[in-house]
Design brief:
Layout (H helix, E strand, L loop, with lengths): L11 E7 L3 E8 L5 E8 L6 H23 L6 E8 L2 E3 L4 E5 L4 E4 L1 H9 L3 E5 H12 L8 E6 L3 E7 L2 E2 L31 H4 L1 H12 L7 H4 L9 H9 L3 H25 L3 E6 L6 H14 L2 H5 L2 E4 L6 H15 L5
Parallel strand pairs: 1-4, 4-8, 9-12, 12-13
Antiparallel strand pairs: 1-2, 2-3, 5-6, 6-7, 9-10, 10-11
InterPro entries: ATPase_NBD, ROK, ROK_cs
Protein name: Glucokinase
Family: Belongs to the ROK (NagC/XylR) family.
Length: 338
């Protein structure tokens, strides 16, 4: 008698990347080979948690319907929902403990989503998911021990040890943005001083550029924002650097040195084989990655830096979704995805 066990490419998990700005949802096959029903909508956290949850559940249910039609599978083919959520989470209880950008505190995300979708739900931190996604199907594929750095409004991170996300004793490991790189440095949004995030996040890059413009009248940066310095963003800095602007290039090089110092510390502690850097900062290209690798080689032990690749992420916009699916598989089976 022929086996009736469904093949991995005909079973699906819904991946959700819940961000402060956007919600991204897709259905992915269990083996990672097929993607269906991708959607993106504004989070609109200002409307409150109930509205965000309702929107997210609607997107999940719509994605299930699209996938059923396009892949020709029944509802029973969907094993569950994996969610990458911002802030600190408790995977065991399924609660978001603190997500300041959403203004969620001790929020029962898993319970609410399971009620609205009728599917099993698992959660993890969004930066952990992005790192896991790059490990499973992206730039860190094949790595055994991986460090991921996500650079956006803040600096997030994830740590993979022996192909599994390392969560620490209270589910809070991987806060790479809050490594201290200057004992008496800039004030960070967390309240501490000298954190990596206070120097290398997108908002910090823009702030440092605005400060530098006070003593530089030759930069093209003001012309890119019609003279309104408040509109300078990290993306504008990268654009100016791409045009050869000296001030912007120095900001990018300086950012690389800050990141390099932080990563060298992590390399000396964890000895990874891959570091993957994701987020808008990758737009800077070799202007960032060249001096970043140089700084890491200068500061980390040679045997450690020689063993490690430092690469940009290759799953822009989807790393969080892919990693949420991978996290669901890992939490459900106790093993990393194949």
């Amino acid at each position: 008698m022929a086996s009736t066990t469904p093949s991995p490419d005909s079973q699906f998990i819904i991946g959700v990347d819940l961000g402060g700005t956007n919600i991204v949802v897709s259905a992915m096959s269990l083996d990672g080979s097929r993607l269906f029903g991708s959607q993106s909508e504004p989070t609109l956290a200002i409307e409150g948690a109930d509205a965000v949850i309702a929107r997210m559940a609607r997107m999940v249910n719509t994605t299930v319907g699209i996938t059923m039609k396009e892949a020709g599978v029944p509802k029973s083919a969907f094993l569950g929902v994996g969610i990458g959520a911002p802030g600190t989470v408790d995977r065991e209880t399924g609660r978001v403990l603190a997500a300041p950008n959403l203004k969620w505190y001790d929020f029962p995300l898993v319970e609410r989503m399971a009620e609205l979708t009728g599917l099993p739900v698992k959660i993890d931190n969004d930066a952990n998911c992005a790192t896991y996604g790059e490990w499973w199907l992206g730039a860190a594929r094949g790595g055994r021990n991986v460090i991921g750095v996500t650079i956006g409004t803040g600096v997030g991170g994830g740590i993979i040890i022996d192909r599994q996300v390392y969560h620490g004793s209270s589910d809070a490991a991987g806060e790479i943005g809050h490594i201290t790189i200057d004992l008496n440095g800039r004030r960070c949004g967390c309240g501490n001083y000298g954190c990596l995030e206070a120097y290398a996040s997108g908002s910090a890059i823009a702030e440092r550029a605005r400060e530098a413009l006070l003593n530089d009248e030759s930069s093209v940066l003001p012309s890119l924002v019609n003279g309104d310095h408040s509109k300078i963003t990290a993306a504008v800095v990268y654009s100016a650097a791409g045009q050869g602007d000296a001030l912007a290039l120095e900001i990018v090089r300086e950012t690389a040195r800050y990141l390099g110092a932080g990563l060298a510390n992590l390399l000396n502690v964890f000895n990874p084989d891959v570091v993957v850097v994701a987020g808008g900062v990758t737009q800077a290209g070799e202007a960032l990655f060249g001096p970043l690798r140089t700084e890491v080689r200068r500061r980390a032990f040679k045997s450690v830096s020689d063993a490690c690749r430092i690469v940009p992420g290759t799953l822009p916009g989807t790393a969080g979704v892919v990693g949420a699916v991978a996290s669901f598989i890992s939490q459900t089976t106790g093993h990393p995805p194949a």
